Amino acid sequence: MLKNKVILIIGGSGLIGTKLVKAIYENGAIVIVGDKINNNDNNHEFFYLDITSEDDINKCILFIENKYSKLDAVVNLAYPRNKNHGNHFFDVSYTDFCENVNLHLGGYFLVLKLFSKYFLKQGYGNIISFSSIYGFLTPRFEIYQGTNMTVPVEYSASKSAIIHLTKYVAKYLKNKNIRVNCISPGGILDKQPEIFIEKYNKNCLNKGMLYTEDIVGTVLFLLSDNSKYINGQNIIIDDGFSL
Ligand SMILES: NC(=O)c1ccc[n+]([C@@H]2O[C@H](COP(=O)([O-])OP(=O)(O)OC[C@H]3O[C@@H](n4cnc5c(N)ncnc54)[C@H](O)[C@@H]3O)[C@@H](O)[C@H]2O)c1
C-alpha cells in the first residue's frame, strides 16, 4: 500500500506513534521517527527532533533530503506539554496556559509551515496532524467526576486551532499538489480509572474507548493514494462518542 514511500512520523515514540510506525513499516514504507525519545526498534531511522525548534525541523528535512532524496508524507502526533499541563481550569495559570499553547499549537504550526515549504519545492506532499475530539467538542466534564482527570483548557485551545490551521494551510496551498489533513481520535485505552471508562463508554455507539490499533487504518488510508482528493479535512475516529 505504501511501497517505497518515505514517511516521517513525528511523535512516533508515543502510545499511538509506536503502533503507527510499525503498521506503516509493515505496509512497505521507509519510516523515519522524529521524536525527543527513541522507543522503536532498529527497523526505523530515528532523528532527534523537537517540534518547537525551527532548527531541529530544518536539520531533519535536510537529513531526509540528503539520504532519501524525497519525503512523501509527514505525520505529526507529538504531544508537547509542561509539567503543569492538565490542571483544572481555575488552577491553570496564565504562564502555564501560554507555555502549553506555545509548545503544542506553536509546534504544530512550525511543522506545518516548514514541511509545506519543503513540499512546495518538491512539487508534492502530504501532511497529517493529530487533533482530538476535544478540538471540536465541548468537554463532557461529567464523565471525569470521581477521577483526578479533566479536559485541559490548553489542550482544547490547541487542538481546536490545529483543526482550523489544517484547513487554512490546505487552502493556502491550493494548486500545489500538497494535501493537509488532520485526525481527531476519541479516548484511547491507557489504564484510565474503571469509573471513567464506564461513563465514557456509555457515550459510544459500539465499542467504547479505542485501542491504539483502531487509529492506524485511517492514517494508512490518508497516507495512500486512495485518499487523493481528501484535503483540508478533520477525520474523526471516536465510535460516535461526539454525536
Ligand atoms: N491518547 C489519546 O487518548 C489521544 C486521544 C486524542 C488525541 N490524541 C493525540 O494523539 C497524539 C499522540 O498521542 P499519544 O497518546 O500517543 O501521546 P504520547 O504522549 O504517548 O506520545 C507523544 C510523543 O510525542 C513526543 N513529544 C513530546 N514533545 C515533543 C516535542 N516537543 N517534539 C517532538 N516530539 C515530542 C513524546 O516524546 C512522545 O513520544 C497527540 O497529539 C494527542 O494529543 C491522543
Tell me about this structure.
It is a single chain. The protein has 243 residues and is of the alpha/beta class. It has one domain: 3-Layer(aba) Sandwich (Rossmann fold). The chain is 40% helix and 15% strand. It has 6 helices and 7 strands, in the order E-H-E-E-H-E-H-E-H-E-H-H-E. The protein has helices spanning 15-26, 54-68, 94-122, 153-172, 194-202, 213-223, and strands spanning 6-10, 30-35, 45-48, 73-76, 125-130, 178-185, 234-237. A 7-stranded parallel sheet has the order 3-2-1-4-5-6-7, with helices on both faces. Helix 3 runs parallel beside helix 4. The mean pLDDT is 97. The structure holds nicotinamide-adenine-dinucleotide. The site of nicotinamide-adenine-dinucleotide (NAD) has 24 residues, from helix 1.
Order of strands in the sheet with most strands: 3-2-1-4-5-6-7
The N- and C-terminal alpha carbons lie at a distance of 32 Å
- Largest sheet: number of strands, sense, barrel closure: 7 strands, parallel
The H-level CATH homologous superfamily, spelled out, is NAD(P)-binding Rossmann-like Domain
Strand-residue fraction?
15-25%
The helix-and-strand class reads alpha/beta
Counting structural domains, the number is 1
**CATH class designation:** Alpha Beta
Global Rg: 18 Å
What is the CATH architecture descriptor? 3-Layer(aba) Sandwich
